[in-house]
């Protein structure tokens, strides 16, 4: 047996052969084999596009707090998808469900890989949960004090807050390195390695303080507390938005709530509500599992069913880390226009290379488009005619791309 590996014996109750528990176990494996890779692919693609779109917006204009929080969430959510959904869920159990045996379980290959991967998983979960909470708090302050919390103010402080949350997660989750390790588990005479927390139980049935801290902090500090805070903040934002809309209707009868600021509030609410809806069932199961014991777990089917239910809901909750881009695309009109702008840039480049017989003209047009993607400069908004000419140089069908560029640059200028 490798060094640093502990032996763990599981005592399953005789009455645990019911179909519901077995179906849950199969559901966990199927979800992590099919659902987890789909969530990872869509999530990483969406988060990468989110970072690219807001970076493009900052290069054409400047950073704002909404963009800062969206990019910070995209980075943290991508980290969760990599360490939790892909490495832990798909590689750890999804492949085993497909092939019938463990294929590539990275966290069970060595005690140090077990500790480091669990440490990164806990830290990124903490960062992602509380970044969303602070994002919602920022939206609440913005709708409550619109003049003080204008979109381009406190950008540096927002970056510092996002970095502080990530650093705080690394600090608070540092005991994970000390308490996690490899254990051997035997099921029907088949031995396998598993990365688990070492409870170090005493004769009195008490686990170590570090193990209790990690278990309860992950359950209540990473899942339950952010869910409750997010629900409270979302309710406060909804109440404030209703108040603002009533005031606007009284002062400006017939006005419409289709402006940029309102769409950003709706996008934040959609992300927050989705987070709460996916987290609430998991929080309920976590609270119910506290009665199953740690050092002396109750040999009941209820506890084993709750264990499998928690794993299933944990995998389903990963959807909340993959939907932000698609929510922005639905609710924020300016974000949709940014996506169209980015696609237009890529399309123009491809058309310049593939369709223009005159290479010098293609190169000149490509340079015009590249100049618009460079860091903001005083003449960027005067380059609209050059963009239109570059689009027209490709073919008659791409003339609308030049109009799209000009309209987008005009919108960004007006937002500033």
Automatic annotation (TrEMBL):
PROSITE patterns: G_PROTEIN_RECEP_F1_2. GO terms for cellular component: membrane. Residues 46-328 form the G-protein coupled receptors family 1 profile domain. It is a multi-pass membrane protein. Its main location: membrane. SUPFAM superfamilies: Family A G protein-coupled receptor-like. It is found in: Membrane. GO terms for molecular function: G protein-coupled receptor activity. The keyword Repeat does not apply. Signal peptide: none annotated. Keywords: G-protein coupled receptor, Membrane, Receptor, Transducer, Transmembrane, Transmembrane helix. Gene3D superfamilies: Rhodopsin 7-helix transmembrane proteins. It comes from the Eukaryota. It holds the Pfam family 7tm_1. InterPro entries: GPCR_Rhodpsn, GPCR_Rhodpsn_7TM. The keyword Lyase does not apply. This is G_PROTEIN_RECEP_F1_2 domain-containing protein. It comes from Macrostomum lignano.
